[in-house]
Structure formats: C-alpha cells, structure tokens
Amino acid sequence: MFLPAGLNRPRRYAALLGLSVLVAAGLGGCGSDPTLYAIQPVSGQVQPGGPVVVEVRTPVVTASLDRDEIVRQDKDYKLGIAHGTAWSEPIGDMIGRVLTQDLAQRLPGTTVFAQNDAVSTKPRAYVELTVTAFNADQNGNAALVGSLSVHGDKSGIGPNLAYPVQLRTHLPDARTNTLVAALSRLTGQLADQAAAKLRALPVLPCCSRP
User: Fold this and answer.
1) What's this model's pTM, rounded to 2 decimal places?
2) How confident is the model over 138-182, as pLDDT tens digits?
3) Which of 106, 112, 140, 172 is surrounded by the most beta carbons within 10 Å?
4) pLDDT digits (tens, 9 = 90+) for 72-112
5) What does the alpha-carbon distance between residue 8 and residue 202 come to, in Å, rounded to a whole number?
6) What phi and psi, each to the nearest 5 degrees, are found at residue 152?
7) Would you say 137 and 161 are in contact if contact means Cβ atoms under 8 Å apart?
8) Contacts of 3 (CB under 8 A, 6+ apart)
9) What single-letter DSSP state applies at residue 115?
C-alpha cells in the first residue's frame, strides 16, 4: 500500500486507517450471499384426455437471461440486473421443472416428466420451449416470450410446428418477489396452452400389433 512520503505520522496513520476500512468493506460486500428466488407451480384448469406419457424437454434460454443474477428488465437497450439476487437453479432447468409440474396438474391420467429425469417409460409426446424473455419489458410488465412446440413421438404424424409465445401481465411494483410471482403465473398460462395442444394431438395406439 503506497502513501505519499510527505505526510506526517498522524496524517499517514489516518490515511492508512481509511484505506483499510475501504478494503474491508469491499471484501465484506464480495462475500455476501445473494437472495435466491424460484418460480412456483400455479394450478390451472384440469384438461383430461392427453397423451399417456409426455416429456418436457429442457427449455432453451437466450444467453442474455442465462446468468447468475436475475435480469430485472430489458429497457432502452440495457439489461437491468436485480443485484444481490439469483435464481436458485439454472433458469432453463427451473422453467422446465415448474412447467412439468404445472402440466402434470392439468393433465390427470398423463405421466409428465422432465428431460433427464430417471424415467424408463418412452414418451408419446414432447413439449419443447425456447425462451427469449423472462423478465419485465419496456412497459414494466412481466413477460414470457419465446416459442412452443408440442408434437408426438412419430415423425410425419400430426403437426410439428413452433407456436409463438407472447405472455404478459401487469406488475404493481418493482420488487423482485412480485416479478417472480408474476413469472410463475405466466408459466402456468403457458402450461394451459401446452396442455390444450397436447390434448389435440392425434391419438395413436400404445403398442404395435403383431
């Protein structure tokens, strides 16, 4: 630590003490743990009649959102970070896990599991999601934006299309827990859409006949 030689002893001591306090404060700030957040399942309308087994593939999340800290808002060409906060798990895994739980509640009689779960049953249909926004938008609304694909396990049977996702809801304040609660509700709305599309898939026999 360098101090000017021209300072007398009391002034040198005071300057040294001030620098030590600043260093200690900086180290203390770096060592603080972030507040962890996670979206939660939201109940929706039960829609019986879906495929027997459904796999939810791990969502693809744009790199601007896939970071340690929570992206609060995308506005004026800048990403606003909610400093001191973080998702409790990788954001793609978290969205996939909660979407799986939401779908399982909406589709009674259907086994719904997330990709990489230890399940030996072969899925009859797949849900795939790409997420380009999972934060507050320019107008201060919570936004879940991306594309959704719901298709059967047989190529060439039934549509295999990507549907645009444009879900938004008003945020009454700028608190992080308000944003997370709103994103939970939007994930539930996405599950409503995915459940309806799963029910509309062609019904195929479970097993091939000899």
Assistant:
1) 0.80
2) 999 999 999 999 999 876 555 567 899 999 999 999 999 999 999
3) 112
4) 988 888 888 988 999 999 999 999 999 999 999 999 999 99
5) 87
6) -80, 175
7) no
8) 12, 15, 16
9) T
